Amino acid sequence: MSMGHWANMRSMQRSRDVLAHKVKKGTLPRILEFARPYRSLIAIFIGAVLLDAAISSVSPLLLRGILDHGIDDNNRGLIVFLAVMTGLLAIFEAIVSLAERRISAWLGESLIFDLRQRVYRHIQSMPIAFFSRTQTGALITRLNNDVIGAQQAFTELFSNAIGNVVMVVLILSAMFFLSWQITIVALVLLPLFLVPARLVGRRLGGLYRRSMELNAQMNNVMTERFNVAGAMIVKLFGSPAKEVAYFEQRALQVRDIGIEQATYSRIFFVTLSLTASLATAFAYGFGGLAVTWGTISKGTIVALTLYLTRLYGPLTQLSSLHLDFMTALVTFERLFEVLDLEPTIKESPDAMAIPEGPVAVVFDHVDFAYPAAAEVSLASLEAVAVLDDTPRTEVLHDVSFTVSAGTVTALVGPSGAGKTTMSMLVSRLYDVDRGSVSIGNVDVRSATQLSLSDTVGVVAQDPHLFHDTLRANLLYARPEATVAEMETALRSAQIYDMVRTLPLGLDTVVGERGYRLSGGEKQRVALARLLLKSPRVVVLDEATAHLDAESEAAVQRALDETMAKCTSIVIAHRLSTIRNADQILVIDAGRIVQRGTHEELIAMDGLYNDLYQTQFAGQEGR
After folding, report:
1. pLDDT tens-digit readout, 123-149
2. I need a labelling partner for 179 at 20 to 30 A (CA). Which of 4, 390, 410, 565 fits?
3. Dihedral of alpha carbons 381, 383, 385, 386, sign
4. CB 97, CB 317: distance < 8 Å
């Protein structure tokens, strides 16, 4: 079956909802903007498509000449000449076809690359609020399926719209020239294919949508159970037999609908083949009679039947050209939807670098509420019909404090008080609504992203390690670091001895999210990564939470040494982490309700004293 017939069936499978979709204004010009860098290549591609169509329409006439003027007239020279010309034309057509495919592949893959890197770069510029709302699978689908769909729609549209139009015009012109009577009757047979094809196409469209849904459900089952955290839950709470049955139920649904799709697809091809066979039978039957009547030649009959076999494919593809066009627009529109979502955190055009040397961190009357869904996300990326319209609720209220250069400030308070939110404002993962956060007398909103990233280092309670080697995870902080520098950082984080015992050492792969390491080992690798970066401002969010008492004491010594050279903000529930802080801020309901040293706060009544009695007193002496 020709590539054209496969392309036509894909068009039939697409949802009819595409035709009802109202495309945003300006979508087509934006698509053409993506094609602008390749306009020379597109022109060559169009030329190859036109040439291929023209060559395909010539060979039946050469065969007609061989039969009518070569064989009937016993002209051996003409037979040899036309046969050689037919062979050379076939070779030339093959070369043109290969060139057309090569150009199409280059054009398509270049377009995929441009779209992917544009979307990926844009997603990388989005704030953390965007990632906290969107589904990872939805983003991956945009980068993979939608980008490839856009490329296919783009290149196939060019090929179908131009090549098939020229092909149909040339073939019909030749057929009318040879026999207008047979041509008209052959065209009358076209509805015998188009009507059932449309009916089958509607059914295939429904099956296609349902197949996508079922495959997504099956893939989701595998994704959730094949990652480390999901597999652990299954082992701890699940039943292997129940899990197998749960998966088999979905796999069976995918199997059944696959069988139905294959059946209807075969009906499509059988209908196409049957129509072409009926047309060929008619041409030979009616044409054969015409030959006996002396009104038409044998060569003309052969040429007409060859043209008929090449006519129905392009005609049926042209019948779905509008659907192809709308599909291209809708697919590109889904990509533009992501590209049009403006990042809420941008680098100022006149941004300045944070000055060198020790720096202080200052919160000046900061108010903050997490952004609304409509500001940072799309309904299609959250798998919901309508975005959550819950009003923004302020979580920080008039927060003011200073962390002097080289000092340590500890943030304590009940869960949900706003401690982690305050720490995220330091690295500008979010922007304040009112007031300011400054580092080294530079508002973080006016600082360059590079200088801010170099200045601030963060270790979270559950640090992330990439599924890569220890070396790659460490070098992510400072790509130019030497092995000696990495080893020094590992020693300071009290993890070097463990790494040295590994057979592959620094080239050991840590697994997804670092799950091949224990919680304490993963935490210390993350600390080593921080130490390797050597930031001037350190934010530790429960950074020693997963360590046992012995490891915590060792790491705490390394942190004390590091924090002595830095400006540090520490969030902790352990007394050992906060008692030596230069100042302690007690946070409750988004406000600073107390501030002072450990001794000062113990001496007064208030929330810190309550926290000390309930959380910290039992840690004395550890």
Report:
1. 888 888 888 777 776 777 777 777 777
2. 4
3. negative
4. no
What does the DSSP 8-state code read for residue 38? G
- At 465, phi and psi to the nearest 5? -115, 140
Residues spanned by CATH 1.20.1560.10 within the chain? 3-339
Ranges in the chain annotated CATH 3.40.50.300: 361-619
* 119, 220, 256, 385: CA torsion to nearest 10: -60
What does the pLDDT read at residue 151? 73
Across 289-305, b (16+ Cβ under 10 Å) vs e yields ebbeeeebbebbbbbbb
Residues 109, 153: contact at Cβ < 8 Å?
Answer: no
Write phi, then psi, for 455 (nearest 5 degrees): -80, -40
Strands 583-588 vs 408-412: parallel, antiparallel or unpaired: parallel
Contact status, residue 396 vs residue 590, Cβ threshold 8 Å? yes
Question: Can you read off the two tokens belonging to residue 88?
Answer: 């050379």
pTM here is: 0.74
The CATH code for residues 361-619 is 3.40.50.300
Whether the pLDDT of residue 576 is over 70: the answer is: no
Q: Kindly report, residue by residue over 242-299, the tens digit of the pLDDT.
A: 778 888 888 888 888 888 878 877 777 777 777 777 777 877 788 788 888 888 888 8
Superfamily of domain 3-339: ABC transporter type 1, transmembrane domain (1.20.1560.10)
β-bridge pairing 456-459 and 537-541:
parallel
Q: What is the CA radius of gyration of the chain?
A: 35
Tokens of 476: 């992510």
Question: Whole-angstrom Cα distance, residue 578 to residue 409?
Answer: 8
Short-list 211, 293, 299, CA closest to 256: 211
